Known about the structure:
The protein has helices at 44-59, 79-85, 89-92, 106-117, 163-184, 188-199, 242-249, 257-265, 308-336, 341-347, 366-372, 376-379, 395-406, 450-485, 491-505, 511-521, 532-535, 543-549, 552-560, 571-575, 596-611, 622-631, 639-649; strands at 3-13, 16-26, 64-69, 74-77, 122-129, 135-146, 152-161, 207-214, 219-226, 253-255, 278-285, 291-299, 351-355, 361-364, 411-418, 424-436, 439-448. By secondary structure, it is α+β, with helices and mostly antiparallel strands. The strands form 4 sheets. The protein has a 5-stranded antiparallel β-sheet with strand order 4-3-7-6-5. Strands 9-8-12-11-10 form a 5-stranded antiparallel β-sheet, sandwiched between helices. A 5-stranded antiparallel β-sheet has the order 14-13-17-16-15, with helices on both faces. A hairpin with a 4-residue loop joins strand 3 and strand 4 (74-77).
Amino acid sequence: MKKTYSYRKRISLLGKIKPVQTDLASEDAPKKARLFFNEQSDTKAVRLARQQLYQQIIETANEGIWMLDSEFRVSYLNKRMADMLGYQPEEVLGQPLELFTFEEDLSELHENMQRRRRGERAVFERTLKRKDGTACWVLVSATPVFDDLGQFSGSFSMLTDISDRKQAQQVQNALFRISEAAHQAKTLEELYYQLHQIIATLMPAQNFYIALYNEADHLIEFPYYVDEYDENPGPQKPGKGLTEYILRTGQPLLVSPERFAELIKQGDVELIGAPSLDWLGVPLKTTQNQIIGALVVQTYTEGVRYSEREKELLSFVSSQIAMAIERKRAENLLRHSEASYRGLFNSVDEAIYIQDQSGHFLDVNQGAVKMYGYPRDFFIGQGPEIIAAPGKNSLHEIYRMIREASSGSPQVFEFWGRRCNGDIFPQEVRLYKGHYFGQDVVIAIAQDITDRKQYQETLIQSRADLFMAYEDTLKGWARALELRERETAGHSQRVVGLTLQLAQAMGIQGEELLHIQRGALLHDIGKMAIPDHILLKKKALTKEEWVIMRLHPVYAYDLLSPIEYLYPALDIPYCHHEHWDGSGYPRGLRGEEIPLAARIFAVVDVWDAMTSERPYRPAWSGEYTSSYIREQSGKLFDPHVVEIFLSKILLL
Length: 652
């Protein structure tokens, strides 16, 4: 005969409290396991206190939170959300979502609106348009909301600002591509084209040019010039254009029409060429702080503007671009003019070493002398070990790469050097086969990458911080679900701890434990997608409503599977209602078809639920709960998991 467990839960969302009746069934539940609970109404004071608590939690959350009505106008937002958009909260309330969306994203926005109307929950990345017109990248977790009649009444979203991560990824990728372009481009023209394409990944760059100052002839040359209105002006004497202003001041410059009018009025510049809407230029400086030219983007299109963000980005990559141009120019000169070898050799800021095929230095430039602080004669006839930091390099591997380079195969590696004053620093070294006054040699070009290393460490820390933010967000989701379902405080943390103990007792270790921890924390996250009229229902659910309720593992899968780092944690949220005998849901898996993590968690979840005191019933004793779990071994639970749990975990 089928036995039924009945209990009531309270679910709270933004202070709204409703009772709901839920029935759980089991074919062979013991008679004494039946539970009956009486619901008592909360006092007005309790409801008010709870509402204030929830409001405080939302207002102090690290994530932005807002609610949209059925027409996707903002009906509520917390302070963090307003700050992310750059508005005061009252400026946002009542506004349509389109106000915070860039024109090119409107089509995707409207598609997402339709999905919410259909009841689809989603996690995705998008950009929001701030008050000042700049973009804010966010990770959005959006949930549709339905009223008691099942009608769509809006949506609830949590938004995490990931702008810093996105920008860091873009800049890191751009710096890497610039370095690669400097080495792979066969000609300067090819290098300039690749630099244009790289800048276009960071900002609008339809109109882009590179201006270089030829000091010997006192000319400004434009080796690369792409503009929708003006032709390449060709070499010319410096005048009073914006490019010359950059070369004179050595400072980046962002010019709007208003700023341009000011500069003209002050007599600093003159109009040259077609007037642009925004003009942005940065100087190209060598590592010796010498200005060799300027890098410029401009826009003539309404709605396409530049800000301080673009100025900072362009300034940040300009030194790498200047270095790439200088390197390519130096390589070209070295390849085509041995007669001017010495002057060229010493004019390059990077350290250059000429080595014979056994690795001994034949010559070094002034860049190497400045980098290490030793005179040129110190290097001649020595090998790389003379400047190597003790214990930081594999000299055997370095000599192997020198042999590879001498046979025509270019090599790239990191080398830790030690300066004359004892300082240890990292370099990127590139080896090429070359010619030195008629003999085959290996040319080594070394660049100090201390700044790059520091940037990488900062990025690693940023990723670690983002990881912690994600973990905090998961805990927030779990706690929000506890509050919504009136779970005993600490339920999520208890089941996580006990699940990890049981998993370790069964031999699971390493990264798999981390996935189990996340899965246990989010085991019932799919219930966030269950409509209120079902989840909050006071009476027993109908057969049709149970069909929907039992979809919450599927909703968990739909919610979490798009998040790459959570995909390995899906076994528990998706499969913890599967039964060993095949009677579970949503897929009716049987025996070892059920993932081990889900089998482990199923035992722990029942143990914690039964031994925890609830408002509607006292806690079961450990002995009584153990008896029930043992009785369900081979039916609901994996017998091996039950045996380990009862014989090892409960004895700890």
